[in-house]
Amino acid sequence: PITGWKSVGSIVSRALTYVFPIAGILVFIYLLYGGLNLMLAIGDEEGLREGKAKITNAIIGFLVIFVAYWIVQALEIILGINLLNWSN
Q1: Whole-angstrom Cα distance, residue 84 to residue 45?
Q2: Distance CA 58, CA 24 (A)
Q3: What is the pTM of this model?
Q4: Is the dihedral angle over the CA atoms 66, 26, 47, 43 positive or is it negative?
């Protein structure tokens, strides 16, 4: 419930539990879209370039999400606080 949110930190903590999985799903969908674009570009150089660019961007997005998740994990250990309330 909203009454349990006592600070901005608790709001951010609650939001992070949803942001990481949603971002991962969106990256996966974009990767599939890039692969589909690559497969449908039969011999078309422009289509091949667009498909490769989408796949590259999806991989970069995955790396950004991965690094952000581990930075949050490291902050939890260093600061001794619980940022990701997976149990709530």
Answers
A1: 44
A2: 10
A3: 0.75
A4: positive
